[in-house]
């Protein structure tokens, strides 16, 4: 197993629960499996996953445990390495190794990764994606929304919570009046509210036709989110999945929508399995990135492509990076992101 560090500058600073970061640091992982060379990416995000140091240590343990010769020969040498990578403790490290395995498996089976997840899904050439509208005064919010719609986006996620509920309500209503009624409008609060304020916000946002509000309350408040579901606006859980398992969220009836980040969940395979489990429970999955580099971002596109009739996902994040590792096989156009059709991930990396 080869583990190579990288650091990519961001186009703009990224605010996280653990502070503001200016670059994404991580590791590319390459592994020989079933006669193929698979590639993965482990890019920890403070506040969501393990630290960069813990990620490297976990990958080193996995590399020491793996029998790569047996894995390349007959696919049997990777089990001990996976056992070193706990999805709850070191999800980014597990994502890196698991993605490399999946890339090699799909290459060996001569199918794109999304069809490896679900052979019955057929050919999926693109997945709908949302545009993100940042916090800004009413006029600039409307301007950004109109530009996104003109670019073909049919779903807009507006950041809320930094301003008063009244001001955010005006922003969302102004967007609703400015764009076609068929454009889905979402609000992302990033856990900004207490329970009382969240109720006020949902009442205000309902008049703007908001389809769902993402993470209105603190990540640990599943009971509060369950109560908010009674107000007529769907509730999406995002940060909550860094505090709770998907099973805990589903059992608590805390969500109408789950925002699934493969890097946080321990790999693309885990993310797809959990997406389909949520769908079985009547909860809709939406796949997003953690502002990853091209390998992990492409893996997330494959996860979304393997979910039938998936809602617009948060995958249009390549422009958040000032630079990337390799050329992007998933360009965004007309509100959709392209799905690679070559075997495996479809990311061609240098040896």
How would you describe this protein?
It is a single chain. With 351 residues, the protein is an alpha/beta fold. It has two domains: 2-111, Enolase-like, N-terminal domain (Enolase-like, domain 1, 2-Layer Sandwich), CATH 3.30.390; 119-338, Enolase-like C-terminal domain (TIM Barrel, Alpha-Beta Barrel). The protein has helices at residues 52-65, 68-74, 79-83, 91-108, 113-117, 138-150, 165-178, 195-206, 222-228, 246-251, 262-265, 268-280, 294-305, and strands spanning 2-16, 19-33, 36-42, 126-128, 131-133, 155-159, 184-188, 212-214, 234-237, 257-260, 284-287, 332-333, 336-338. The chain has a seven-stranded parallel beta sheet. Helix 6 packs parallel to helix 7 (165-178).
Question: What is the structure about, briefly put?
Answer:
The chain is 37% helix and 21% strand. The chain has 351 residues and is an alpha/beta fold.
Q: What oligomeric state do these chains adopt?
A: single chain
The side-by-side strand order for the widest beta sheet comes to 5-6-7-8-9-10-11
Give unreliable regions as ranges: none
Overall 3D shape: globular
Sheet/helix structural class:
alpha/beta
Straight-line N-to-C gap: 13 Å
Order of helices and strands: EEEHHHHHEEHEHEHEHEHEHHEHEE
Name the CATH superfamily classification of the largest domain.
Answer: Enolase-like C-terminal domain
CATH architecture type of the largest domain: Alpha-Beta Barrel
Mean pLDDT over the residues? 96
